[in-house]
Amino acid sequence: MVPPDAEDITRDPRGPFALTLLAILAICLFVGFVELGNWQVRRLAWKRDLIARVDQRVHARPIAPPSHDQWPQVNAEHDEYRHVQATGVFLHDRQTLIWAASDDGSGYWVVTPLRLTDGSLVLINRGFVPEDWCGRDGHCAPGPVGETTITGLLRMSEPSTLFRRNDPAHNSWYTRDVSVIAAARGLTQVAPYFIDQDVAPAGSASTAHSWPQGGTTVINFPNNHLSYLITWYLLALMTLGGAIYVGYDEYKLRRSSGRPEAEGVNQGGGPKKVL
């Protein structure tokens, strides 16, 4: 004989209410996981198209930046990272240093207005400089004078964020927010975008000193959508597998509950014992 506490005790089948709740939960989870997987499929296609479009823009021949009458139509989807070329005169007395971090350590972006031939202005991110560059004021190396032609990548304005908030009153800058910089520097007719200047060609006059260092635009679009969609679809399959298991287990319980043995009675009508 085995101890009483080792007797085989079979639970009763779940009732209709419990099964209904489990079925609703399983359906909701399955449909939700599938929809999330489908959404990631669409995001994957969008991200791959974005990467291809940006790569094409970056390596294309430079074109003129959007003119004043085109500014209202400028947007990130159609214009950001376009390779552009602009000609004008730098206003070095209106430049702004914006905190930045790069492979060379902490420092600043040197953002200088460029007055174009039509009288409008566009902010040019001339590149990165270390923290001790010109004692932070930047007056020791004003850069090109007279009419200058620059090439670079068109970038959209960067508003302040919760943890990177510009403070114009104290000349403390963390993002390249075009409208706020323009207002702080008393600039009008400023393009709603800025240009990240390319690295100066080797041997040019611009390379007489190493700072600012152009051509430091970081183009990185994380693409984890494939792993995400696999995860969601696997969760959907696990939910379906769990539902099948519960359904089969309930089916077995209902079949066994109809047998005399399940009532604790043997074929002879006497009590059933476990040996």
Structure overview:
This protein has four helices and six strands. The chain is of the alpha+beta class and 275 residues long. The protein folds into two domains: 1-63 and 220-275; 82-207, no CATH class. A five-stranded mixed β-barrel has the order 1-3-4-6-5. The protein is elongated, with a radius of gyration of 34 Å.
Uncertain regions spanning at least 5 consecutive residues: 260-270
Number of strands: 6
Number of domain units: 2
Kindly report the average pLDDT value: 82
From the helix content, strand content and strand pairing, which structural class follows?
alpha+beta
In whole angstroms, the N-to-C terminal distance is 5 Å
Reconstruct the topology from this structure:
Blueprint: H1 16-58, H2 76-79, E1 83-90, E2 96-102, E3 105-116, E4 121-130, E5 147-156, H3 178-184, E6 190-197, H4 225-256
Parallel strand pairs: 4-6
Antiparallel strand pairs: 1-3, 1-5, 2-3, 3-4, 5-6
Helix pairs in contact: 1-4
Short structural summary:
This protein has 275 residues and is an alpha+beta fold. The chain folds into two domains: 1-63 and 220-275; 82-207, no CATH class.
Summarize this structure as a short list of keywords or feature phrases:
alpha+beta, single chain, 275 residues, 5-stranded mixed barrel, 2 domains
